[in-house]
Specification:
Strand content of chain B: under 5%
Number of strands of chain A: 2
Number of strands of chain B: 2
Number of helices of chain B: 17
Largest interface: A-B, 78 and 93 residues
Shape of chain A: elongated
Helix content of chain A: 40-55%
Strand order of the largest sheet of chain A: 1-2
Oligomer: heterodimer
Shape of chain B: globular
Radius of gyration of chain A: 27 Å
Order of helices and strands of chain A: HHHHEEHHHHHHHHHH
Largest sheet of chain A: 2 strands, antiparallel
Chain lengths: 381, 473
Amino acid sequence: MKLMERFQTVFLVSGIGFFLVSFLGMGLAPWTTLKDVKPPKELMTRSELEEKGRQIFIKEACWHCHTQFVRPLATEVLRYGPVSSASEHVTEIPQLFGTRRVGPDLSREAAKRTDDWHYAHFYNPRNTVPWSIMPDFSWLFIKEGDKITPTEDAKALVAYVQSLGKNVKEEMQKADETFAANFKPSSPPAYSSFLEERGKTLFQRECQGCHGSDMDGKGKAQPFLLPMAANLAQSRPTVEYVFTVLNKGIPGSSMPHFRDYSQQDLWAIAFHVSNTAKNNNVMASTQGVSVESSPEIVAKGKTLFETNCTVCHGSNIDGDGPAGKSLKPSPPNLKGLRPTAKAIVWTLENGIKGTAMPSFVNLGNDEKWAIAHYIESQYEK
Amino acid sequence: MHGFRKGGSSMLENRAVVNGKLVRAYIYVSLLGILIPLLFALILAAKFIWPDFLGGIAWLQFGRLRVFHTNGIAFGWLGLSFFGLLNYVIPKLAGRPLLSEKLAWVTLASLVIAVGTGLTAILAGQMQGIEYAEFPWYADILFAAAFVMAVINYLGTTFLSKEKQLYVSSWYFILGLAFTVFNYVMANILPTYFAPGAAGAAITGLWIHNIVGLFVTPMGVGLVYFFIPIILKKPIYSHGISLLGFWTLAFFYPLGGAHHYFLSPIPRWVQVLAVPLTAVLFVVVVSVVFNWFMTLKGSWKEIPKTPALAFIVTGIFGYMATCTQGPFHAFLTIQKIIHFTDWVVAHAHMALFGAFTYWIIGCTLYIWPKVTGRELVSPKRQWVFFWLLTLGFYVFYFIPLTAAGLIQGFSWAQNSPFAESVIQSKAFWFSRMIGGVMMYVGMVLFARELWDSARFGKLASNIERSSVEGEKS
């Protein structure tokens, strides 16, 4: 026993010996078994910008709140994407696995959101995610008057975030597309004031950062988003339409899907949006004189629509035109979104920046109104 | 043989082997090492509730402050205060003054420069991407140099001791000091610059685990083994059990590091091994705590008379709690729920605050009259901060945060939207902030008690003063 209590024993055996046992057995041995693991080809290299972004990610200690590995648990695969493998991390020195998730895991973040969304979010996370407690990174932007431009650092950070898990990006996008293609809205629950209240709460929690508290698309994120968030106030979207968009998102725009919420919750938001937008018709101003609807006008509008619009919007106005299908963002189902005639005229005058929708300067005021009345006449009553 | 058993060896002798001024200087600096990071912790707690509080300022960004907090506490508070107490305990155990008191002063200056540089760099956004090893390379070199100086001093003193057989505290100090030199160098070189991905994570796991288990734990446990018999004036209950506790800790503890990355891409065999190698640590805590409690048997009535002892014993309960949680965390059924949540944050604070900080406070209160030559001024104030810390930590911090961790874990496990786990945690985070304020006020009162006592305390009795040199304040 005395031997075990001598300085030399304790120092050599426990202080140095057990360190070596630990280091060789649990540190070096795993390393040697991983020596020959090759990364997927997408992860072989990181662009200069992505590498710079990674350094900022380290410098701002982002990895203290965001992990970068998906555990082999069903709910994590559903929430984030495929389980992480050792091969995906072999180019990472230091590793940024992380040990705490104050915010969500980021290892499958590539292409989940637009760059615009990320800029709005980094400038102030409450811009896009009102419930977020993430710190803002507004010093990565230059603000001149109303104009906010990202610095190189902000661009690098976004490029890095957009590169996380890029090896499974296509796989995940394909899964989203398959979901969207096969999506059929479930039958809605009976409307109740409880659902309405829940919908209102959830709208404030998740939606109003972009869509604004008046649903006019002028939320805090507006300066960053192109296309800007839909002005729901000048539309009268149906419950099914809102529900569908919440499930699918709008690929190509900053509108994400909200499938992590229960279907019940999504119906609740849909009820609230549909009801409030109907009662909240803030009209967009139009320059031209408004023209009343009449059967002749509608007939004229139909002809004009077929020549000018069907290629994208489809002959059914549901956004399924031959060219529309492949557009991102694809044209909305106008029968579901139900914009007012005035809003349609405004859109024909101005186009929608950030989408394929141009302004139709060649059409006269009467012609624009004719198209608008035709489209409106097609809504289900 | 064993000093405490025969009662009358050098440890209890009053030869002047301790330099009181040196101990005081270390302790004063360590008080800054807790009061500043703790202030930033309060800002962090507020940011959980009001994320735009002090927003838009780079150096006050949440991530930087969090890293400042963890590193400041680890090195500025635990590191410096342990060294301060070692400056007292090591000479006592060795029956001779430190190898070099001059070196100890140089060490203190180097530690201040190293920790100050490292923490400033963190606020400036210059950090390495390894947890608890965020100090940039230049601060690493400074810190490693200072640490090695301290190790040479303490181990040298112990080695030159005339004692043929070492007391249990000495084993722990030797283990902790020797191990940590290698551990620190490993962490700041391999996973930071060389070991990629999962291999790096395995080594990082070892580092995170061992800085707590093989630096903080041996220092703390060694101190408790030293001070309980001294305060109670009776020998430790069982020498055999202390051997068991020590050697199981020394052998098994360094092998469980991968449990910080369970269910990660680290090779599965490493993770599988880490489960039993972590679970077996239950033996360590049971044997050590049993030994202490059996020593305390019959002396519980001393606690209400001595705040120092109250801190040490409360710390033992904290140690028991956190070290009992640990082995159970290793089971994957529990792990998959609690990992990444506030449960772990609460668990870590139970160790570093509930156990080790309590021990440091208790030990410091006990030695303060001996190193200042003056008695503590206000037992009442000591009880006030004891209860502020204890209620603040247990009622407002530990229990709510543990509950929040369960809520987060189960919320994720049932695939609720991420927002739910954040929104439902808010009330608990608010409670944590209140607890934090109480803990901060408590620590300020503790610092005040030391400061006041050193300046205005009644001159202590001759016996107490004769055991130290340089007690003039």
